[in-house]
Each structure stands twice: as structure tokens, then as C-alpha cells.
């Protein structure tokens, strides 16, 4: 199995988040989670000053582009290329060119490795992010994405949530 690399996809300007959502939904529907690992719209913090008040907002680093961490094959190429709003991969002709580690470094995207000893059925507590202080049970482990799927109670129902290894600790 070949290794996942980061690729750049050109989109219609203003459609970056919609393209990300569409690709994420297609990956889920076609069960390509092991091949298309992550879709990102890189953002940067910008300080704006209006009427003497400074506030920090997030702006797209590359309007019209989306980054995708995936294993390139005919299926994944087809899924991404035929997503509504995508005009094509960045690269000569129809051959996508992966980003190098040197090109990824300034974007702040690092692949940190976490040694984990989680197993399905273990209890975990979320220590960061939107689900902080939530307790759940591990349902599945995705080593490639370095994430866990846990069940949490939401509105009285068990709901699966994907959490990064960095955001949880074992109970």
C-alpha cells in the first residue's frame, strides 16, 4: 500500500468549505476513510483594526485551494476530481503532484506521532477541543489519521465522534 501524501486541489473561489464538506461526505459514503485521510482549508489569524478596536479573525491562506491528505489511486483521484466545485488538481496536465515536506512546513501542518495504548472498549476523557471534559468509550481506532471514534451522549443518544489522539487521555 502506498503512502498518503498532501495534494492541492483548485476550486472555484469561495467554494473551499463547500468542496471540503462534499469530499468529506463522499469519503464517508464510499468508505474511503483509509485512503482520503484529511481535507483542509488552511486558515491564518489576521488582526483587523476597525474604529480603534483590534480583533483577530481567520482568513483563508490560499483562496481557491484545498489541501487533501490522501493515497493517490484511480478511485481517490476520480472522487476528488469529480466533486462539485473542484476544477482540478495542481500539477502538469492530469497528473497531480504531491507537496514536499519543505512545502508543508510553513503551513503548520505536522504529522506528530502518538504512542497510544487504546483498545476498543476503553474509557477515555476528552481533554481538549469542542468535546473537552466529555467521557466516552472507544469504538474504533484509526492509526493513519491518528484518531479515535468514541461514543458520547448527545441529547440522550449515543453519538459517534472522531477525536484526535492528542485530545484524549485514558481513564
TrEMBL record:
Cellular compartments per GO CC: cytosol
Cytoplasm as UniProt keyword: no
Keywords: Transcription, Transcription antitermination, Transcription regulation, Transcription termination
One Pfam family from the record: NusG
SUPFAM superfamilies linked: N-utilization substance G protein NusG, N-terminal domain, Translation proteins SH3-like domain
SMART domains: NGN
NusG-like N-terminal domain boundaries: 3-111
GO biological process, one term: transcription antitermination
Coiled coil: none
Family from the record: Belongs to the NusG family.
Function text: Participates in transcription elongation, termination and antitermination.
Protein name (Swiss-Prot/TrEMBL): Transcription termination/antitermination protein NusG
Amino acid at each position: 500500500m502506498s503512502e498518503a501524501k498532501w495534494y492541492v486541489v483548485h476550486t472555484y473561489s469561495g467554494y473551499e468549505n463547500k468542496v471540503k464538506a462534499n469530499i468529506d461526505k463522499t469519503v464517508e459514503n464510499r468508505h474511503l476513510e483509509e485512503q482520503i485521510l484529511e481535507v483542509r482549508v488552511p486558515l491564518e489569524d489576521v488582526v483587523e483594526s476597525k474604529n480603534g478596536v483590534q480583533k483577530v479573525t481567520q482568513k483563508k491562506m490560499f483562496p481557491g485551494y484545498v489541501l487533501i491528505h490522501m493515497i493517490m489511486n484511480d478511485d481517490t483521484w476520480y472522487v476528488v476530481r469529480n466533486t462539485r466545485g473542484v476544477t482540478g488538481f495542481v500539477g502538469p496536465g492530469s497528473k497531480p503532484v504531491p507537496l514536499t515536506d519543505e512545502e508543508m512546513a510553513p503551513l503548520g501542518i505536522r504529522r506528530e506521532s502518538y504512542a497510544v495504548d487504546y483498545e476498543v472498549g476503553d474509557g477515555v476523557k476528552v481533554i481538549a477541543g469542542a468535546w473537552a471534559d466529555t467521557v466516552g468509550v472507544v469504538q474504533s481506532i484509526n492509526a493513519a489519521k491518528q484518531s479515535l471514534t468514541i461514543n458520547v451522549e448527545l441529547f440522550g443518544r449515543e453519538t459517534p465522534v472522531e477525536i484526535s489522539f492528542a485530545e484524549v487521555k485514558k481513564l
